[in-house]
Design brief:
The structure is a homodimer.
Chain A: E1 2-8, H1 12-23, E2 27-33, H2 37-45, E3 51-52, E4 64-67, H3 74-81, E5 90-93, H4 99-104, E6 114-120, E7 141-146, H5 152-164, E8 168-171, H6 174-199, H7 206-212, H8 215-221, H9 228-237, H10 239-261, H11 265-282
Parallel strand pairs in A: 1-2, 1-4, 2-3, 4-5, 5-6, 7-8
Antiparallel strand pairs in A: 6-7
Helix pairs in contact in A: 6-10, 10-11
Chain lengths: 294, 294
Amino acid sequence: MFDTVAIVGVGLIGGSLGMALRERGLARRVIGIPRRAETLAEALSVRAIDDGTLDLAAVSAADLVVLAPPVLTIPPLVEAMAPHLRPGAVLTDVGSTKGSLMRVLPPLLPEGVDLVGGHPMAGSERGGVLAARADLFEGATYILTPDSRARPESAARLAELIRSLGAVPVVMEPDLHDDAVARISHLPHVVAAALAEAAGAGAVPADVLRLLVAGGFKSTTRIAASSPEMWRDICLTNREAILAGLSDFEAALGAFRAALEAESPDALLSAFGRGKTVRDSLAPPTTAPTGDLP
Amino acid sequence: MFDTVAIVGVGLIGGSLGMALRERGLARRVIGIPRRAETLAEALSVRAIDDGTLDLAAVSAADLVVLAPPVLTIPPLVEAMAPHLRPGAVLTDVGSTKGSLMRVLPPLLPEGVDLVGGHPMAGSERGGVLAARADLFEGATYILTPDSRARPESAARLAELIRSLGAVPVVMEPDLHDDAVARISHLPHVVAAALAEAAGAGAVPADVLRLLVAGGFKSTTRIAASSPEMWRDICLTNREAILAGLSDFEAALGAFRAALEAESPDALLSAFGRGKTVRDSLAPPTTAPTGDLP
């Protein structure tokens, strides 16, 4: 589908992508271009790439360039690699926010390079290429935001590649994507971190809390174990949408506080009921039960 | 260990307990005493009990009585069954809050009946006896709060039974338990419900949100699918501790809001870092990665 794929930034997502491309034979050659020599060695050791270099100029060999570094570093990286990009190449990224990138990147690109933004809805609270898995994208939605100046066949080729990874490509407007992920991903990360912090903020000794930790705490705070650096950057690139989601969350939480203060059974029942209705609608229960409280 | 165990309230927890006792041969006979005939039929069909009745007087046959109905119904049930309790019997419950029960129940009991409160830290967002599993308690912490008037050997016998279920009995003061579970279980349920509600509160169509749902949203809001009735009751019995936890949570969330509004990379990094530190300390990461965002 593509001859040579260059993956710039070889962490969990970049590494998993390389692994999947190699295991499924979807590219003749996968080049890794991480920032650090240590990552290069790790990526080679887990067979996430065929070969690699720290030199951005290596993108000149690629007909598909995948940007998978921390999202805030993408614009300067594109600026630095632009002179080396081959005419006819497709450039994509895996950044968690799309609006600002789709505004900032196109003017940086040479003629004949097609930008098709991307965001695979898959990941893990464990970062780094050592956590990479070839099956990470299987069954995942994979958002694509093609630049209006890109040839339609570039988006089509990338979509085909994504289908071959076992994922489901979906074309979406960047700003709609950002509003949606603010509520479905970014706000949950903020809330999970605050919830973990609050668990430790009381007078109960950590040893006692640790004894009582069960499925409910584990699942609500699992993503609080994610990289603080990555989530700082994501928050900075999708600030307004997250703040809008946060306001709705504070309102929902305020209803709980009022119901608790008033000792109102009816208000508590409605508040829990509203949450259950949305949850059941957005993510219908699976059959497999999982360990949990009360 | 016990000859006849009566389980009053045969839902997820009561049913799983009956199943585990039967499969492991830990009691000669397990009687189920649900509130509704339909539940009795279901409990028999999934072999959670040997036999059953809707008549509370049947507790007279039991040397161990387990109370597993909704927590607010426990005091009136105990009042109703008290005349039928056999001298020498052990009475326990599986309620999610312990302080108020351990104050209210003892005066209701006849001489010679020993109250040993309990709370297994296991469960599921799926309720009801049809979701019961014999292995539900395996590896779980199981809190015991013996009444000061109970014979020590009653708590010891119950602890031994719990160990035989594969769980880990831990004796704890009721109020310490309640403070801890407010933060480790009850507050997460409130937050999960508010988070699910907020996801649906914006302008993004539900179909788009559904496409983008991935591991982060699923795990943070999983317990929002729990029974609103059960969580209403738990909130009412542990109101003050939950409100105290909520205040700490609001403070942690307020730091995120301030950091977002100020576009402060440092404040965002610290806030995510504080959450990660507590989470990593209370529930160290497992090796198995799970599907998730970014």
